[in-house]
# Entry
Amino acid sequence: MVNVSLKEKSATAPIAGDVPHKLVAQDVFVSYADNQALHGIDLEIPPQQVTALIGPSGCGKTTFLRCINRMNDLIPICKVTGKIELDGNDIYDKSVDVEVLRRHVGMVFQKPNPFPKSIYENVAYGPRIHGLAKSKADMDVIVEKSLVRAGLWDEVKDRLDQSGTSLSGGQQQRLCIARTIAIGPEVVLMDEPCSALDPIATARIEELIHDLKKRYTIVIVTHSMQQAARVSDLTAFFHLGNLVEKGETNQIFTNPIDTRTEAYITGRIG
Amino acid sequence: MTDTIHPLSRGALPGLTARYRKEKVFKHIGLVAILFSLSFLAILISGIVLKGYGAFLKTEVMIEITPELYDANKGSSFTLLRKATIANLPAVEGRKERRAAYGMIGEGSEELLAEMPPVTSTVQIWLPTSDLVDVAYKHDLAPEFTDILTDKQLVWLEGWIGEDRVRTRFNAGFLTNGDSRDPERAGIGGSFIGSIFTLLVCLLLSFGVGVAAAIYLEEFAPKNKMTTFLEVNINNLATVPSIIFGLLGLAVFLNVFGLPRSSSLVGGMVLSLMTLPTIIIASRVSLQAVPPSIREAALGVGASRVQMVFHHVLPLAMPGVLTGAILGMARALGETAPLIMIGMVAFIADVPGGFTEPATVLPVQVFLWSDSPERAFQEKTAGAIIVLLAFLLVMNLAAIIMRKKLEKKW
# Structure
């Protein structure tokens, strides 16, 4: 297996060798100063599927998610050890450039956070800084394609110059999804993307997640077990910084092996 | 019937009446405090305006010049002025009276006469009066303003007024002239231009450096002992008395670097030392106020930190940064003490033409004039204060307008 660094790898590079998984985490430990947040996580995430990370508050699922695009680098006291591989390439390797990594691994945040700029600018910003569009026409195509894929095009096509913050909460979150996929990532991380939304907006996002998994590998953190059951193919249950159980969503929800998983999904802990 | 209390009325809950009373008292105290401070402001402003509006006016007197008089004194406008003054006053006798008569007319008149076209028939020309007459006339010959005139001068002035030969006009010279020992000729033009030059230097130096320092400290610097130490010292610098910065400027800019004394370049440098901490602190506060979610959003799509700062964070923080900068500038505009140390208190009669030429600034001009013994400088002082306040008002207005324009709706 050739270890190609992310620096040189193009967005459409084939999966190296016979590695069946998009992402592989091995022995991931994370600590915030003296506080150990994750105790050796091993998790494989297959391509073009939705993997849900569930667990009670403070169990480390968001911390793990943020390790995958190295958002934790921003926190000076945060220390990550272990290995996370994207297509067989260690993302914590010295030669990795986080900006390149984040082109491959996009992220949608808990609270919709569009830039206070126009809808068009919101989507076009990522492609522009990465030089993905050679002309204005190219950019128009990228913006339209991303908004169509995020299911927002029909609602905003006549007002692309309006501020992204003028949209409703659900629309803002779909705009954030459009912004994330505009740079052509392979993996989309979603950190409780529906926690600030009403049930109808939530349903739209869930449908969207279902559509998006044809193209992208999705890792979603959610507090709602129903949501995990509805949208995900695989589920990983975190508890107190440990990965307790992982497996097919059906199996986890109907026939959990670990008693803690069972206690959580039946509502006894959490 | 009468002593039943409605269960939802005020009386139903003991202590409620007292609570309302307290609320009312507090409201009234607040109102009184605001009225109190407003009345002080009103007294200050109206006092200055009443005292200073005269500085924008000058008193002129109509002098008749006959061709004979003109021809007899063709060579010298100085003698022409003197002769014409005597001719326009009734019965001037003796040397003492003649000297008193000359003192009625302002010094700028001589130049006016020199520029006058040849007189072929009797002409009437309006000439500025001396500052003594000017002050007395502007105050309607009130006794406390006429005691500087001799009795004869007062009689003459009353005579002129009776003949309707005295008027006041807008004094453009006050806004364009440099400083002068003559109250009639002294203007704030020099110090106004000096203030603008000084503030320009100050803004260019402190804005760039201050914002860059704030961005580095807020967005890039690691949080360790060194940055905490820096932070504490920046906060300390903001409270250092301004004259200390003047001493520093004297020791470093003038003595070590040998920059020109009294120049607006050095003045601006010294003031920028003083405004830097203000700008850094204001900029840091407004950078902190940008929600972290915007930073995450930018980094999440693969922006570098520099791109994150310059594309997203700084534009959102800009209204606050600019407000801080303008407030810092406003403080710099009103500063006198540090400029005393670098020689900007000198009497400078010329309007500065560049950053390295000797200059003074508005508050220093106020300080200089307030020290002058001539009574006419009293209203000049107040007039300069009016201009200074107007300058400040314009700057603060600019801050508000810029803030409103740049502020983004969330």
